[in-house]
Amino acid sequence: MQETLCDRLFWHTAQRDDAKIADHLFHRHEMDVVYAMDEATLFDSFFNYLQEIEVFALLEHLDPKKQQRKNIPFMQLVLVFLMKVVGSIKTIDEISDLLLTDELLMSMCGFNAHQVKNGSCDRGTKLRKTPIPEIRGSLCVDTVANHVVTITPRRIENFFNRCMISDN
């Protein structure tokens, strides 16, 4: 996934040069903070940034309040979809393997380890024709898709307008 992120977003990651680092530390005795840029760090930083610029709270206004079963807050679905977009995941089906089964990433969206392993509900498990996988994932891909498409263009427009107003 990190390779995909770098390729699609045209990010240039640092190259490791131990000799240069040792030389710098020996002669200057100073070092800036170095962070590992794995997926979890990227999304943690991104979500913190959204909170800092007061956009995170505006995401809750995207909820069209059309959910019939509220066992999963709409905000969690939005965060999963944001990860899909920021992570440059091409199709909604790919999020199952890349996001929904990753305990750390899903914990950032508010899911716990039990939900990642066993799913958020048992709906549909009795109808399965294939064996239930060892790690089911926090959600079904269709659940994410079916809820995200209920966000109207007007709500998205209002979201972006509020983002611009809160920036001033």
Class from secondary-structure proportions: mainly alpha
What's the count of strands? 0
Using only CA atoms, what is the Rg? 19 Å
Query: What's the mean pLDDT score?
Result: 80
Query: How many domain units?
Result: 1
Shape: flat
- Residue stretches low in confidence (pLDDT < 50, at least 5 long) are none
Order of helices and strands: HHHHHHHHH
Number of helices: 9
Largest sheet: none
Query: In percent, how much strand structure appears in the residues?
Result: under 5%
Helix content: 40-55%
N-C termini distance: 35 Å
General description of the model:
By secondary structure, this protein is mostly helical. It has one domain. 52% of the residues lie in helices and 0% in strands. α4 crosses α8. The longest helix is centred in the last third of the chain and has 15 residues. The chain is flat and about 65 Å long. The model has no long low-confidence stretch (mean pLDDT 80).
Summarize the structure.
The protein is 52% helix and 0% strand.
What are the main properties of this structure?
168 residues; mainly alpha; 9 helices; flat
Write the layout of secondary structure elements.
Layout lengths: L1 H8 L8 H11 L10 H14 L21 H13 L8 H6 L2 H6 L4 H6 L22 H8 L4 H15 L1
